[in-house]
Design goal:
Elements: H1 2-13, E1 22-26, H2 33-48, E2 58-62, H3 74-83, H4 98-103, E3 107-112, E4 128-133, E5 147-149, H5 155-166, H6 173-187, H7 193-208, H8 215-227, H9 234-239, E6 242-247, E7 250-257, H10 261-265, H11 270-280, E8 285-294, E9 297-307, H12 311-323, E10 331-334, E11 341-346, H13 353-377, H14 385-396, H15 405-408, E12 418-419, E13 425-426, H16 447-458
Parallel strand pairs: 1-2, 1-3, 3-4, 4-5, 7-8
Antiparallel strand pairs: 6-7, 8-9, 9-11, 10-11, 12-13
Length: 471
């Protein structure tokens, strides 16, 4: 595999000169252990079998973060080192211009460990030819894009099954150790049918390569490396496992962090550091899902911390979180020492980030459509119905807790043309509803002139006897 990775990396440095097609296997933007190994193994499989594109195509695994952030993935670095894979042979997202390749009709995409492109990559959708994921299906399979989406402990389990069933001859100890490490890491303490399939893959790998390390010892090493946050800044802790949700000009980061909520909120200068993170990465809000364990239960304890310098974003996102999950994660507010950070406890220990992201995606999409609709109407921006409902709720509810009254109140600056808390950004002016020179509603409205303008713009000629309302 190392030779394959070096060849594909060398091709990337030449902008794939001489390669009419580039088949990229892209992992998720979290770039965790499962995502990295699944992209490497699937790309290697495609390069060695007829499943890859024919002709002079190149198959290339791409790790979906900038190279500068890879040092944060301590568990990934450990397994790669144990497997003899050097970081110099890897290709990262900031080294490949996928949009340019797609524009040149040279890009083919296989997605692993995620089924939907992040919003900033939506322009690449037409290049997706296959999806392999182990989360809830978020796309419809088609003849042109087959989808494998099954609930197992890891995406690497599905990739291992593909290799063992279709090309077992390409499996050497190096590849087996990579897959084995991920499945060990993700299947320990898992229950259900998905974990049964993962353990079946572990037994098959162990049978074929008896000298693989003991699963318990390998899990301990990887687990220790993954959860060691010592010496990391708040920014690095968030970047270690961050996904971006964006729509229009609003960008929200969602990070999984393996700390208790108390430890996270207790970090020195936390609010200032979160503000700096938002400025550095052009974010409007950060949602951190904290994950910790206690002695009373083997189930994880999950909390959410929501930060935004804008009270409007805090209010709207918190409303979406509290009201839009199905089934409900039993979200309940808890106290926070910061005015710009809201905190919640998740009563459902299984309410993972993969269930949170669709809620935020739907919320941002609806919000953007409302803004576009208000602009298209040409009137002044209508008051946000969300704000109205929250004001009504605040006035009518006698059970509202005093600890959250500050984010339920409608602040005057949120309704100004410029929001001081977001750097003075202004809402775009409402466009004029103009179909003729000037606004047709400004002065005498002439229906015939308006219909004539429609015909001129669309090249439509009115048929004899055809009623104008059918044009």
């Amino acid at each position: 595999m190392e030779d394959f990775l070096r060849r594909s990396s060398a091709a990337a440095t030449t902008s794939f000169h001489g390669n009419p097609r580039v088949h990229v296997v892209l992992g998720s933007e979290s770039c965790d252990l499962d995502s990295v190994v699944s992209s490497l193994a699937m790309a290697y499989f495609l390069s060695r079998t007829s499943s890859g594109l024919s002709g002079s195509s190149l198959v290339l695994p791409v790790l979906n973060i900038p190279r500068s952030q890879f040092h944060l993935q301590a568990d990934v670095l450990l397994l790669l080192r144990e497997s003899g894979i050097t970081t110099e042979s890897l290709v990262f997202r900031d080294q490949v211009d996928l949009a340019r390749l797609h524009g040149e009709r040279r890009l083919v995409l296989t997605l692993v460990d995620h089924s939907v492109l992040q919003s900033t990559d939506c322009c690449l959708e037409g290049a997706v030819v296959e999806v392999i994921d182990h989360y809830q299906l978020q796309r419809t399979a088609s003849f042109f894009c087959p989808v494998t989406a099954e609930t197992v402990a890891s995406c690497a389990t599905l990739v291992t099954e593909r290799i063992l069933s279709s090309a077992p001859e390409i499996l050497d100890r190096q590849l087996a150790l990579l897959l084995y490490g991920v499945v060990v890491m993700d299947s320990v303490n898992q229950v259900g049918g998905g974990s049964v399939r993962s353990r079946q893959m572990l037994r098959r790998l162990q049978k074929q390569f008896p000298d693989l390390p003991h699963g318990g010892a390998l899990h301990t090493s990887l687990h220790t490396a993954k959860f060691d946050l010592s010496g990391l800044s708040t920014e690095h802790i968030l970047l270690k496992d961050m996904k971006l949700v964006a729509e229009g000009d609003v960008r929200v980061a969602v990070s999984s962090i393996f700390l208790s909520l108390e430890s996270f909120l207790g970090r020195k200068n936390l609010q200032q550091e979160l503000q700096d993170v938002c400025l550095s990465h052009r974010l409007d809000a950060v949602v951190a899902m904290t994950i910790s364990f206690n002695d009373q239960s083997e189930k994880p304890v999950r909390h959410l911390a929501l930060y935004s310098q804008s009270s409007r974003y805090r209010r709207q996102i918190s409303h979406a979180l509290l009201n839009s999950w199905s089934p409900s994660p039993c979200l309940s507010p808890v106290s926070s020492p910061y005015k710009d950070i809201l905190a919640y406890h998740l009563g459902d220990a299984l309410a993972s980030r993969s269930k949170l992201i669709p809620v935020l995606t739907h919320f941002l999409s609806d919000r953007w459509q409302r803004e576009m609709h208000c602009g298209a109407d040409g009137g002044e921006e209508s008051e946000d119905p969300l704000d109205q409902s929250m004001m009504i709720s605040e006035e009518s509810s006698a059970d509202s807790t005093s600890g959250h009254q500050h984010w339920l109140q409608l602040e005057a600056e949120d309704h100004g043309m410029a929001d001081e808390q977001t750097g003075g950004r202004m809402m775009p002016p409402a466009p004029m509803n103009s179909l003729v020179d000037g606004c047709p509603l400004d002065g005498v409205f002439n229906q015939e002139a308006l219909l004539e303008k429609f015909r001129w713009m669309g090249g439509v000629e009115e048929e004899d006897g055809r009623h104008p309302e059918h044009i």
